C-alpha cells in the first residue's frame, strides 16, 4: 500500500496535470470557434463554385481537359493524406492514418503526399520516407495552391493516375469521421448532385470567351479550393476532437484525485490508529 507521502505526491502531480488539460481544453474551445467561422465563410463560395462547374460541364459538348479524363492506364493512384500537426486529440489522427494504410493495402504502389506533421511522421514509419510533405499550419491558401500544383503536375505528366484525398470531416462537435474521396479525374457523374440544380438556372448563363476556356481556368481553382476547404475542416475537426479529449482527461484527473485523496485519508487514519495502539500497548506494558 502506498505511503501517505507517496499519495500526497501523486495528488500534487494529478492536480498539475489537471491544470494543463483544463488550459488546453479552454484553448481548444476558443480555437474551434474561429476554425468553424472560417469554414462557414467558405461554404457559399464552395457552393457557387460547384454550381458553376456543373453549368460549364452541361454547356460544353466535349470537355478537353486532363482533369476530366481518366489518368494513364497502369499509373499508381496518389493519396493526399491530411492530418493535424499536433496530437493530444484522441484517435483523430490515427483514424485518418489507418484509412490511408487501408487504401494503400488495396492499391499497391500508391504514392503519398502528406499535409500535417502527424501524417508525415506516420508515412515515414510505415515505409514512405521520401514523399512531398507540407504542414497544416501557416498560410493554408498558399499550402493548398502548392499541393494542387504538385499533384496536377504529376497527374498531367502521367506519373499518377488519380488523386484521392483522405482527411477528416466534422460531423459534429462530438464526432469526427475520416473521409476518402476522389478529386481527379472529375467525372460527369460526380457532378450529378449539382447538375440537377444547374439544369434549371434562374436566368440564361453566358461564358466568355467560351465555356471551354472558362472551364479550363476553373478546374485548377476547383482543386485548390477543395484542398483549402479540407484543410479548414481538418483544423475545426482537430480542435473539436482535442476539446473532447482534454475534457475527458480533466474529468478523469478529477476522479483520480478523489480516489487518491480517499486512499491518502485511509492511510493516514491507519497510521494514526497504529500509533495509538502502540502507545496503549506500551503504557500497558509499563503498568504491568
Count of helical stretches: 6
Strand order of the largest sheet: 3-2-1-4-5
Give the low-pLDDT segments: none
Percentage of helical residues? Answer: 55-70%
Mean pLDDT: 86
Residues in β-strands, percent:
5-15%
CATH topology value: Pyruvate Kinase, Chain: A, domain 1
What is the radius of gyration computed over CA atoms, rounded to a whole number of angstroms? Answer: 29 Å
* Tally of DSSP β-strands: 5
Sheet with most strands: 5 strands, mixed
Could you spell the SSE succession in H and E letters? HEHEHEHEEHH
CATH-scheme architecture: 3-Layer(aba) Sandwich
> In CATH's first tier, which class applies?
Alpha Beta
Q: How widely separated are the two ends?
A: 34 Å
Secondary structure blueprint with pairings:
Blueprint: H1 4-59, E1 77-82, H2 92-106, E2 111-115, H3 117-125, E3 133-134, H4 140-156, E4 162-172, E5 175-184, H5 192-198, H6 211-287
Parallel strand pairs: 1-2, 1-4, 2-3
Antiparallel strand pairs: 4-5
Helix pairs in contact: 1-5, 1-6, 4-6
Amino acid at each position: 500500500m502506498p505511503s501517505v507521502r507517496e499519495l500526497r505526491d501523486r495528488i500534487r502531480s494529478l492536480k498539475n496535470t489537471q491544470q494543463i488539460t483544463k488550459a488546453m481544453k479552454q484553448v481548444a474551445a476558443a480555437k474551434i470557434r474561429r476554425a468553424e467561422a472560417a469554414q462557414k465563410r467558405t461554404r457559399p463560395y464552395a457552393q457557387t463554385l460547384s454550381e458553376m462547374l456543373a453549368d460549364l460541364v452541361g454547356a460544353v459538348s466535349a470537355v478537353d481537359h486532363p482533369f476530366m479524363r481518366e489518368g494513364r492506364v497502369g499509373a499508381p493512384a496518389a493519396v493526399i493524406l491530411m492530418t493535424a500537426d499536433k496530437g493530444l486529440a484522441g484517435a483523430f489522427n490515427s483514424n485518418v492514418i489507418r484509412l490511408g494504410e487501408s487504401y494503400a493495402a488495396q492499391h499497391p504502389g500508391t504514392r503519398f503526399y502528406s499535409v500535417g506533421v502527424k501524417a508525415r511522421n506516420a508515412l515515414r514509419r510505415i515505409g514512405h520516407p521520401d514523399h512531398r510533405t507540407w504542414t497544416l499550419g501557416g498560410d493554408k491558401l498558399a499550402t493548398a495552391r502548392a499541393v494542387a500544383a504538385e499533384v496536377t503536375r504529376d497527374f498531367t505528366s502521367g506519373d499518377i493516375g488519380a488523386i484521392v484525398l483522405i482527411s477528416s470531416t466534422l460531423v459534429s462537435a462530438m464526432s469526427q469521421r475520416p473521409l476518402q474521396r476522389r478529386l481527379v479525374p472529375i467525372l460527369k457523374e460526380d457532378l450529378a448532385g449539382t447538375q440537377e440544380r444547374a439544369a434549371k438556372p434562374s436566368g440564361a448563363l453566358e461564358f466568355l470567351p467560351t465555356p471551354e476556356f472558362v472551364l479550363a481556368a476553373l478546374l485548377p481553382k476547383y482543386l485548390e479550393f477543395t484542398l483549402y476547404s479540407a484543410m479548414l475542416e481538418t483544423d475545426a475537426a482537430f480542435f473539436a476532437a482535442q476539446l473532447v479529449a482534454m475534457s475527458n482527461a480533466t474529468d478523469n484527473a478529477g476522479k483520480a484525485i478523489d480516489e487518491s485523496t480517499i486512499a491518502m485519508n485511509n492511510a493516514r487514519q491507519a497510521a494514526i490508529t497504529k500509533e495509538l495502539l502502540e502507545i496503549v500497548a506500551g503504557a500497558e506494558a509499563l503498568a504491568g
